[in-house]
Amino acid sequence: MSQDKGGSVGCVVPQTAQFDQPLLLTCGVTVPRYQLVYETYGELNADRSNAVLICHALSGHHHAAGLHHEDDKAAGWWDNMIGPGKPIDTERFFVVALNNLGGCHGSTGPSTIDPETGNPFGSRFPLVTVKDWVDSQARLADQLGIAQWAAVVGGSLGGMQALMWTMSFPERIRHAVVIASAPRLSAQNIAFNDVARQAILTDPDFHGGDYYAHGVVPTRGLRLARMLGHITYLSDDGMGSKFGRLLRGERFNYNFDVEFQIESYLRYQGDKFAGYFDANTYLLMTKALDYFDPARRYGEGNLSRALSRAKASFLIAAFDSDWRFSPDRSREIVKALTDNRLPVTYAEIRSVHGHDAFLMDDPQYFAVMRRYFDRIAAEGV
Amino acid sequence: MSQDKGGSVGCVVPQTAQFDQPLLLTCGVTVPRYQLVYETYGELNADRSNAVLICHALSGHHHAAGLHHEDDKAAGWWDNMIGPGKPIDTERFFVVALNNLGGCHGSTGPSTIDPETGNPFGSRFPLVTVKDWVDSQARLADQLGIAQWAAVVGGSLGGMQALMWTMSFPERIRHAVVIASAPRLSAQNIAFNDVARQAILTDPDFHGGDYYAHGVVPTRGLRLARMLGHITYLSDDGMGSKFGRLLRGERFNYNFDVEFQIESYLRYQGDKFAGYFDANTYLLMTKALDYFDPARRYGEGNLSRALSRAKASFLIAAFDSDWRFSPDRSREIVKALTDNRLPVTYAEIRSVHGHDAFLMDDPQYFAVMRRYFDRIAAEGV
Q1: Is the same domain home to A356 and A312?
Q2: In terms of domains, do B109 and B71 share one?
Q3: Residues at site: Important for acyl-CoA specificity (chains A, B) (predicted)?
Q4: What's the rounded Cα separation, in Å, for the pair A71 and A65?
């Protein structure tokens, strides 16, 4: 039930969908036109009933499975989950993965050239919400001729999109698979996001978001944001068993160089991320997390009322060592679903990997996912 | 049993002790001479047996109780705990509070003028350890004519100093009061410290630690470090009940200004701190936390063996919502003490205030402290 089961989707070529119908965003700004880059794995069946949408999290993108080139060292970010014979089985499902609006991997975002000015949008790119993403994903479904998804699937921020689908387009989604997610951020979640944002916003190389024109990138801020993020993705115990107090050298240096291996790991992760990810996209993604709160407009943030429109069946999965979005947060969703007598399977999975567990191989987790997708297939796709 | 019980020590005048005997630090550097600023409350009794040392935590200092001027708005940082009729009762105890070596409140530290150059020590100030602090505190005790402390008391990093006293100078301490502390940092603790340090070290205004000469201060980095620190001092639940998802305005701005009250609170705390605290001292304090690990030199980090030298009695107190130094960490200390058949009282206190609870009024906490100090007094001080 782990990564050794199932094969690869092989080499894939990203595609681009162009949308020329204006999109009104939650913030009030209208985007006149935009592009979304996406990949597909497997074949859409004759009655177009086997399509599965993969929604990405904060730093994700459209390249979820397979390789871009035969000599690629790393496969797509969820290659362990998606492929022939894997839990999301591309021999049965037509899987679509996209880069969200505002992203930095090919979809229209802050680093895209604005055709009206010839310069990147930068600070002029509007903030987008989970609802906006789902609206834009619905238009992608239209272009692909998909009237209804067999399932919309995501972890973390991706799970929020799956949840939003059931409220924005209840007729267009049969199953929502919401992993390691939450119905809204807590004050602590927002606090961590704000520190990460302040690191970027106060980096002298940020230039109010228009750093592209200055030939610089706010790498210091982005690096700090990623280091901090990483701490919240891992569990205290997981970090303890992997790194503990192991030193990099034989003894302490008594200076500010790396002393402990955990420091080396975090700085490496921060440097790597700051080398390829767009800071404006990072800011925008964290804001989408903060704003997500579908229950807000209902009396006292009533999630049950917010989900009363939903018609889907649900798999809600959480990991016991995840302190970013703990199982309690998933149970809030489960309660709101059962309040509405909606079909829901809840899986609380033991793992030492914290929030990151949703990306990792784990026999129990993979068995839950495999069984749930077997069930979707058995319903007739 | 809370702040309304007991009075104030009134106006106090900080004093300065000069040490001209060289101090060899753990890092191998010798400090030829140094000053420590301190305050005292209450009267040393005839047989000099009623002295209590207060050790401060990361951002603390010598001004633990009373006022410096009659019109001061804020009293010392532990004024709720120390005073006539308070748990650490200055009618019975002679209380000494100092600013540690490396501090920025009057004791010799990185911002002190080096008499040899006429400029602040800056990057040339060595890193100090908890052991070094305890050594320097022992010399302060010598100057004050205190052969043995009735108690050494501290929360967090201060608790580590109290613990170290029992190992470095077992004959000179009768009671160690170790609150919200830990026998060593975890990988996660170190990770948070490293992000804070990287924020300061990579601030362009840091200038390798010699920012004084440039007429600037790395406020951006220090502000981020403090914002991050604050998240770890509060509990998720405490933050949730105080701030939740409350907005500052009536609706979302959809920009990077403050949206949520938690953001406003954190940025305010960060700005305030960056306005008065020295960045080099902050770095040095976090390193002292990282290095503290008295069990390290014993087989497989055996804390029981490290504490086999201790002769004191102990009060170990922890707070259930403290996720920085959770009760588990205090229980490790309790176990090592009971392994050595040392007298230990362990109190695990319910509080929503997280790590910061050690500074807050709480009836159960204050009752535990009061009873413990009553017992010390009853032993005859």
Answers
A1: yes
A2: yes
A3: 324
A4: 15
Q: Are residues B175 and B219 in the same domain?
A: no
For residues A46 and A158, state if they share a domain.
yes
Residues A101-114 as b or e (16 or more Cβ within 10 Å = b): bbbbbbbbbbbbee
Domain limits at A170? 15-184+294-379
Closest C-alpha among B284, B291, B336, B61 to residue B189: B291
Tell me whether residue B260 is in a domain: yes
- List chain A residues with CB under 8 Å of B302: none
* Residues B224 and B270 both lie in one domain: yes
Residue A5 lies inside a defined structural domain of this protein: no
Catalytic residue numbers of B, as ranges: 156, 322, 355
Which residue among A188, A199, A236 places its CB closest to the CB of B188? Answer: A236
**Closest Cβ opposite residue B266 in set A191, A266, A291:** A191
- Put the strands of the sheet holding B344-349 in their side by side order: B15-19, B34-41, B94-98, B51-55, B149-155, B173-179, B313-319, B344-349
Distance in angstroms (rounded) separating the CA atoms of residues B20 and B15: 17
pTM of this structure:
0.97
Domain boundary among A233, A264, A287: A287
A 203-242 residues inside an 8 A Cβ radius of B:
203-204, 220, 223-224, 227-228, 230-231, 234, 236, 239-240, 242
How many whole angstroms separate alpha carbon A156 and alpha carbon A53? 15
Please confirm, yes or no, whether A355 is among the known catalytic residues: yes
Handedness of CA A142, A143, A145, A149 (dihedral sign): negative
CATH code, domain carrying A238: 1.10.1740.110
* Residue A160 and residue A48 share a domain: yes
What is the three-class DSSP state of B215? coil
Total structural domains in chain B? 2
Which residues of chain A lie closer than 8 angstroms to B190, CB-CB?
245, 260, 262-263
- Are B186 and B326 in contact by the 8 Å Cβ rule? The answer is no
B227/B109 same-domain check? no
Whether residue B4 is contained in a domain is answered as: no
Residues of A in contact with B223 (CB under 8 A): 198, 202
Q: Do A243 and B293 touch (CB under 8 A)?
A: no
The pLDDT tens digits along chain B (381 residues) read: 344 578 999 999 999 999 999 999 999 999 999 999 999 999 999 999 999 999 999 999 999 999 999 999 999 999 999 999 999 999 999 999 999 999 999 999 999 999 999 999 999 999 999 999 999 999 999 999 999 999 999 999 999 999 999 999 999 999 999 999 999 999 999 999 999 999 999 999 999 999 999 999 999 999 999 999 999 999 999 999 999 999 999 999 999 999 999 999 999 999 999 999 999 999 999 999 999 999 998 877 899 999 999 999 999 999 999 999 999 999 999 999 999 999 999 999 999 999 999 999 999 999 999 999 999 999 977
Q: Are residues A41 and A145 in the same domain?
A: yes
Shortest Cα distance from B84 to chain A (angstroms)? 38
Residues A13-63: tens digit of each pLDDT: 999 999 999 999 999 999 999 999 999 999 999 999 999 999 999 999 999
Residues of B in contact with A301 (CB under 8 A): 245
